[in-house]
């Protein structure tokens, strides 16, 4: 009964028409319009919906489904239609058009239909099939696209909450609804009766980003009633679905794609201040925000409610340098309302984070000795003059400063605010030749504002090597006595006993004291410079020589104050 080669039938048809001899034995079928894609042909027992025009030989119309505005629905090939139609509809595809010539014995026979179809009438039908299904049908699910950019680890299960886009058509392609027309996803629970049965089943197993075609027979859709004016009774439905995301209200956060650094001495805990970069996307890969676009890390305390709960939890236990993906369900993110213009309501968030550094406000300087010379008796202390090499970097490896950049080694007096507090602390206790790696938290470095090359709140790493160490003098002194001060200082200084001490005499006197280890100049300053400064200070009237009175006066004036004095 199913004539798969239309060509044969055209010939057959022409044969009959041209001869016009005697009554037809069987239905004549002309498949004059067959769609290119014909996934299914009507078989006996299928339920079909079709439109038709019926006319008599003289072209007189006796009936039309169009006049009633609704397609005819019924089972095919089981004797519920006139035999001619029953036979003529078999093998049809949806959207196929056929002309049928039905001889009287396969139509209304010698009786006809009073007032409509005369006796022994040959019937001419023009049909178009709009729907076909069978009560044994199941859902037809075709995966059209599977995402490659997102992992398909988790798929839709009963009681999940899903967000998806869809286009809905009838089987013949008639559009009835689309989420796009509302420009937001359709959001609902699966398997909880909110959806038609076919959709509840058809979504199962989908990954975010996956596209499916789901064909749903009417008994898993709107059945005999249809839906409003858009879905006729007994309609099969075709949904093209794009799953955007899914989660379960019972979900916590999920960690994935963890990449740990080689060394992780410490893991972040509540109260730590973390600096990190992130890319934020929705589960289907749609980007919504990134720290990189602002060119600065995102900085925050963790575990204290400053950020969304999912992030607060997701950053717990991170190592410096670690990368991880944190997947956050909406109840731990931005909830049902989302964030205007960037995050839809009930959206699952996917953050790829890269931890740059973290510290705790209670942190002190972390010192690790990397090399200790065999003799390390004399160590640097506050007031000492030191020279050292250093490299300074951020914890992501960015080099910021290095003493190797210039020919001059760094030289400072410890404990005099010459360098940031943390570095000063890190240098104390070193002996010449010793090497250290020192981590300085921002409150002992450049703080919340940062400095050139140093981002706000950055932890700094210093690699240090002490090269030179000189005993210092108390703050404010340019020269100190290592033995008792001479009883009569002026007499001691006035080497030629002419009762005045010019610069040369003063200089000779002090240098002699130093070379004979009775006294010491402040380290790190040329002795001549210190001598000049001290002389200028003593020579009150600036006549180029110190007198006994000038020395006495000066000593009395500043008896209690220690200031660039002998
Ligand atoms: C039936 O006739 C109407 C107009 O008379 C036409 O629009 C329609 O396409 C016809 N249907 C078929 C299946 O030929
Ligand atoms: C998928 O899940 C398994 C087990 O749940 C996990 O071991 C694996 O790392 C996950 N794959 C990805 C790409 O996240
Ligand atoms: C729905 O139709 C629109 C317009 O044709 C198309 O852009 C979109 O990709 C379709 N969606 C799905 C899920 O097929
Ligand atoms: C980001 O920082 C880099 C390096 O400091 C700089 O070259 C770039 O211009 C900055 N971009 C923006 C958008 O600020
Ligand atoms: C964020 O995206 C940019 C650009 O694709 C990439 O270079 C960077 O590594 C990503 N960062 C993270 C933490 O995944
Ligand atoms: C420390 O110095 C003393 C003398 O100054 C010396 O006797 C001793 O051996 C040194 N100690 C070490 C461990 O080098
Ligand atoms: C600083 O870095 C340079 C180049 O890597 C290295 O040669 C030098 O030893 C480092 N200095 C210190 C004090 O670690
Ligand atoms: Ca003199
Ligand atoms: Ca003088």
Automatic annotation (TrEMBL):
E.C. code: 5.2.1.8
GO cellular component: endoplasmic reticulum
Entry keyword set: Calcium, Endoplasmic reticulum, Glycoprotein, Isomerase, Metal-binding, Repeat, Rotamase, Signal
Protein localization: Endoplasmic reticulum
Signal peptide start and end residues: 1-21
Enzyme class: isomerase
Function: PPIases accelerate the folding of proteins during protein synthesis.
Entry protein name: peptidylprolyl isomerase
């Amino acid at each position: 009964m199913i004539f798969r080669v239309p060509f044969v039938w055209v010939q057959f048809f022409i044969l009959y028409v041209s001869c016009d001899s005697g009554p037809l034995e069987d239905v004549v079928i002309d498949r004059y319009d067959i769609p290119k894609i014909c996934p299914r042909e009507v078989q006996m027992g299928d339920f079909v919906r079709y439109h038709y025009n019926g006319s008599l030989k003289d072209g007189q119309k006796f009936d039309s489904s169009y006049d009633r505005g609704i397609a005819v629905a019924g089972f095919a090939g089981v004797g519920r239609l006139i035999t001619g139609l029953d036979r003529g509809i078999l093998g049809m595809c949806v959207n196929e058009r056929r002309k049928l010539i039905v001889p009287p014995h396969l139509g209304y026979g010698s009786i006809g239909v009073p007032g409509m179809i005369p006796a022994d009438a040959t019937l001419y039908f023009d049909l178009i099939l709009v729907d076909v299904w069978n009560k044994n049908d199941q859902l037809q699910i075709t995966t059209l696209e599977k995402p490659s950019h997102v992992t398909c680890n988790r798929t839709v299960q009963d009681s999940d909450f899903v967000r998806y886009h869809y286009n809905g058509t009838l089987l013949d392609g008639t559009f009835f609804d689309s989420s796009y027309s509302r420009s937001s996803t359709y959001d609902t629970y699966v398997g909880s009766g909110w959806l038609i049965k076919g959709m509840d089943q058809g979504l199962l197993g989908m990954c975010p980003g996956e596209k499916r075609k789901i064909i749903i027979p009417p008994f898993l859709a709107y059945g005999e009633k249809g839906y409003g004016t858009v879905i006729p009774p007994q309609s099969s439905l075709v949904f093209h679905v794009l799953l955007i995301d899914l989660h379960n209200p019972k979900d916590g956060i999920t960690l994935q794609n963890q990449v740990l650094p080689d060394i992780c001495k410490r893991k972040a805990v509540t109260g730590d201040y973390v600096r990190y970069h992130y890319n934020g996307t929705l589960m289907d890969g749609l980007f919504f925000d990134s720290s990189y676009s602002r060119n600065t890390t995102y900085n925050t305390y963790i575990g204290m409610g400053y950020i969304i709960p999912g992030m607060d939890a997701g950053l717990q236990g991170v190592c410096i340098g670690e990368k991880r993906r944190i997947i956050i369900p909406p109840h731990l993110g931005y909830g049902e309302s989302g964030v205007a213009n960037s995050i839809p309501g009930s959206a699952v968030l996917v953050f790829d984070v890269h931890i740059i550094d973290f510290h705790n406000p209670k942190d002190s300087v972390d010192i690790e000795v990397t090399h200790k010379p065999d003799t390390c008796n004399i160590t640097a202390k506050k007031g000492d003059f030191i020279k050292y090499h250093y490299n300074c970097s951020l914890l992501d490896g960015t080099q910021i400063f290095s003493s190797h950049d210039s020919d001059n080694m760094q030289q400072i007096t410890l404990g005099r605010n010459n360098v940031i507090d943390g570095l000063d602390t890190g240098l104390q206790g070193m002996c010449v030749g010793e090497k250290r790696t020192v981590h300085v938290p921002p409150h002992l470095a450049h703080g919340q504002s940062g400095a050139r090359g140093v981002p706000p709140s950055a932890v700094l790493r210093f690699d240090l090597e002490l090269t030179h160490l000189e005993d210092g003098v108390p703050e404010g002194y340019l020269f100190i006595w290592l033995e008792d001060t001479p009883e009569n200082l002026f007499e001691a200084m006035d080497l030629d006993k002419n009762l005045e001490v010019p610069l040369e005499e003063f200089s000779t006197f002090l240098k002699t004291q130093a070379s004979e280890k009775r006294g010491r100049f402040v380290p790190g300053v040329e002795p001549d410079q210190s001598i000049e400064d001290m002389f200028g200070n003593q020579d009150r009237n600036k006549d180029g020589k110190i007198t006994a009175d000038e020395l006495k006066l000066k000593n009395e004036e500043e008896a209690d104050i220690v200031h660039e004095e002998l």
